[in-house]
UniProtKB/TrEMBL annotation:
Domain Rieske: 4-99
Database matches in Pfam families: Rieske
TM regions (residue ranges): none
Any coiled-coil regions, as ranges: none
Species in which this protein is naturally found: Ramlibacter agri
Alphabetical keyword list: 2Fe-2S, Iron, Iron-sulfur, Metal-binding
Family according to the record: Belongs to the bacterial ring-hydroxylating dioxygenase ferredoxin component family.
Record-linked InterPro entries: Rieske_2Fe-2S, Rieske_2Fe-2S_sf
Cofactor requirement: [2Fe-2S] cluster
Name of the protein described by the UniProt record: Non-heme iron oxygenase ferredoxin subunit
Length: 107
């Protein structure tokens, strides 16, 4: 696992989801109660970007069919999604947001 810098802290406003791409994978970042969280940005029910959804009370709502996911765990809180979104460990230091991510293998 590697810690990769994915955003400047100031770019992550409270309750405003943003999308970043890390090693070709879309990741949704959101700050809630002062802490950054990260989930895979693709809804597990049907292709839609969670970062385009509505965020409230610690959950992101998919803009396509309104499935909601807890940003702390990735667990669906409301269907039609039943599979959790991938959750990533996030940290913040020196004005930067870092994501724990598997390193790509180099051939």
């Amino acid at each position: 696992m590697a810690q990769l810098k994915v955003a400047a802290s100031q770019s992550l406003a409270e309750g405003e989801p943003v999308s970043v791409t890390v090693q070709g994978q879309p990741i949704m970042l959101v700050r809630w109660e002062g802490k950054p969280y990260a989930l895979g940005d693709i809804c597990t029910h049907q292709y839609a970007l969670l970062s385009d959804g509505f965020f409230a009370d610690g959950c992101i709502e998919c803009p396509l069919h309104q499935a909601t996911f807890d940003v702390r765990t990735g667990v669906p809180q409301c269907g039609p999604a039943t599979v959790p979104a991938r959750r990533f460990e996030v940290s913040e230091a020196d004005g930067e947001v870092f994501l724990e991510f598997e390193r790509e293998s180099v051939a």
